[in-house]
Amino acid sequence: MQQIVFKDLGRISYRKAWDYQGQLRDEVIALKRENRELEKQGKTALPTKHYLLFCEHPPVYTLGKSGSPDNLLLNEKGLSEKGIEFFKTNRGGDITYHGPGQIVGYPIFDLDGFFTDVHRYVRYLEEVVIRTLAEYGIGGERIKEYTGVWLPQKGWLPKRKICAIGVHLSRWVTLHGFAFNVNTDLSYFRHIIPCGINDKDKDVTSLSFELGRDVNEEEVKGKLKRHFSELFGFEFAP
Predict the structure, then answer these.
(1) What is the DSSP letter of 184?
(2) DSSP states of 71-129 as a string?
(3) CA 121, CA 222: separation in Å to the nearest integer?
(4) Which pTM value belongs to this model?
(5) Which sign does the torsion angle of CA 100, 101, 102, 104 carry?
(6) What secondary structure, in 3-state letters, does 43-69 show?
(7) pLDDT tops 90 at residue 110
């Protein structure tokens, strides 16, 4: 069974978290190379390393490599006045928001230790959140055209995205991950076209909005970790 090193980074700038992901990815890839050499020599390979990072960012908009800058509705002055950073990234997807009250998860997994299927990997990330939502009596779902986790239309409320997902793989080692709106201030999404989706029948939401109360984020993290372990079939390193 694979072992995962879990780290809760707390509140950390997007840049620092991105750099740290890169550092861990390089470490995992270097180990893969070392193990290939050991196998060629008929020696026992070293245990594969995997990491799961949770964190929260100060307000920031990030744009995926396939996204359009036009989906950011603020200019540089507007960003500065509101104290929001902006980064272009190498993940998939379009523009999204990260900020306080949101649980951001960055798995740095060597998928050679699980399965080499990026679509299955993204579905598993969605499933982790769907199973967590179910514990709060909320039915999360997928929309065929889009990644992420959505809630179905309910009364006057349209379909609502509660978790955005964008990933990047290098030698089957994953980067980036998911952003789950728990107690998130949703007003920040009004300054972007979230994920490039400009349909009037779609919106964003948070767990606290749906439940009508603040949610214990540590409790949510515990549920996410458990569902990660169950779905991917790993145990957390002591």
Answers:
(1) -
(2) GB---HHHHHHHT-EEEE-SSSSSEEEE-TTEEEEEEE-BGGGT---HHHHHHHHHHHH
(3) 20
(4) 0.96
(5) positive
(6) CCCCCCCCEEEEEECCCEEEECCCCCH
(7) yes
pLDDT at residue 1 above 90? no
What is the maximum span of the chain, computed from C-alpha positions, in angstroms? 65
Structural class in CATH, domain 2-236: alpha beta
Give 97's Cβ-side CA count (13 Å radius): 30
> Which H or E element spans position 188?
none
Give the pLDDT confidence of 121-172 residue by residue, as tens digits.
999 999 999 999 999 999 999 998 899 999 999 999 999 999 999 999 999 9
Q: Residue ranges of the domains in the chain?
A: 2-236
Gyration radius from the chain CA atoms: 18
Q: What one-letter code names the amino acid at 49?
A: K
Residues near 76 by Cβ (< 8 Å), separated by ≥ 6?
none
Place of tokens 């379909």: 159
Name the nearest CA neighbour of 48 among 26, 34, 32, 62.
32
C-alpha span between 151 and 141 (Å, rounded): 6
**182 close to 102: Cβ distance less than 8 angstroms:** yes
First to last CA, the chain: 14
Alpha-carbon separation of residue 15 from 87, 105, 188 (angstroms): 8, 15, 19
Cα 99 to the center of its chain, rounded Å: 13
Residues in the chain: 238
Active site residues: 195
